[in-house]
Amino acid sequence: MTLKGDPMIRNFYLLSFGIGAMLLAANHAQAQGANCADHATIVEQLAQNYGERR
User: What is the Cα–Cα distance from 38 to 6, expressed in whole angstroms?
Assistant: First the structure.
């Protein structure tokens, strides 16, 4: 039994890998939101660390 010979098994593997990739991407996107802060805090940190002024 090879992947090339059986389209059902090939489709099953492709579907499994696709679902796994979507789960990993969703977890990564969810973790990115945790680093956010309000605008005033970020502006103050930039001003202190880098001399950024607006």
Answer: 54
- How buried is residue 7: exposed, middle or buried, by Cβ count under 10 Å (0-12/13-18/19+)? exposed
Domain assignments of the chain as residue spans, ordered by start: 7-50
Residue 22: CA count within 13 A, CB half-sphere: 6
Chain CA centroid to CA 34, Å:
12
Threshold 0.70, pTM exceeds: no
Alpha carbon distance 22, 39 (integer Å): 31
CA distance 17 to 3: 14
pLDDT digits over 10-25, tens only? 899 999 999 999 988 8
